[in-house]
């Protein structure tokens, strides 16, 4: 699968559809408007120039990568060991028809960060991605 930013300056190639899509509401993901699919970084090809952003207000686990021309968010990459190779790819760069039917998850990202080992329950039940869905 290939996706591109709006200006066409960055192309992302992934080997397959992700197992699910994540619509996180943490303060970063919500503001970025990304819809994440997860892959092993070795399986993802990013062509074109990107710039990186790392938050300074929290302990840094990842950086977001974006097109410097149109500012589209492309991916996030780990800056610390996550326990397994993993990166997030913004699936909004891909044709939405290719995503129809994939499970959409809605993690409660704003409730993370209390040093608990358990994730908070999702804020909405899982639903299939649809072109006419209100998300």
Structure notes:
The chain contains 1 helix and 11 strands; from the N terminus they run E-E-E-H-E-E-E-E-E-E-E-E. The model has no long low-confidence stretch (mean pLDDT 89). It has 135 residues and is mainly beta. It has a domain at 29-110. The protein is 4% helix and 31% strand. It has one helix at residues 27-32, and strands spanning 2-4, 11-13, 21-22, 36-39, 45-47, 51-53, 62-66, 73-78, 87-90, 103-106, 124-128.
Morphology call: globular
Low-confidence stretches: none
- Terminal CA distance reads 22 Å
Oligomer: single chain
C-alpha-based Rg, rounded: 15 Å
The topology string of helices and strands comes to: EEEHEEEEEEEE
Number of strands: 11
User: Percent of residues in helical segments?
Assistant: under 10%
Strand order of the largest sheet: 4-9-8-7-6
Class of secondary structure makeup? mainly beta
What is the residue-mean pLDDT, rounded to a whole number? 89
Number of helices: 1
Amount of beta strand: 25-35%
The largest pleated sheet is described as:
5 strands, antiparallel
Topology:
Elements: E1 2-4, E2 11-13, E3 21-22, H1 27-32, E4 36-39, E5 45-47, E6 51-53, E7 62-66, E8 73-78, E9 87-90, E10 103-106, E11 124-128
Parallel strand pairs: 3-10
Antiparallel strand pairs: 1-2, 2-5, 4-9, 6-7, 7-8, 8-9, 10-11
List keywords for this structure.
about 140 residues; mainly beta; five-stranded antiparallel beta sheet; three-stranded antiparallel beta sheet; 1 helix; globular
């Amino acid at each position: 699968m290939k996706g591109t930013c709006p200006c066409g300056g960055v192309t992302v190639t992934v080997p397959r559809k992700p197992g699910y899509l994540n619509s996180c509401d943490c303060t970063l993901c919500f503001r970025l408007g990304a819809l994440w699919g997860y892959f092993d970084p070795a399986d993802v090809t990013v062509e074109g120039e990107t710039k990186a952003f790392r938050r300074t207000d929290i302990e840094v686990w990842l950086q977001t990568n974006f097109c410097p021309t149109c500012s589209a968010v492309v991916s996030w990459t780990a800056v610390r060991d996550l326990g397994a190779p993993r990166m997030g790819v913004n699936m909004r760069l891909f044709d939405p028809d290719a995503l129809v039917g994939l499970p959409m998850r809605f993690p409660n990202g704003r409730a993370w960060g209390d040093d608990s080992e358990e994730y908070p329950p999702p804020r909405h039940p899982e639903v299939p991605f649809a072109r006419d869905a209100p998300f």
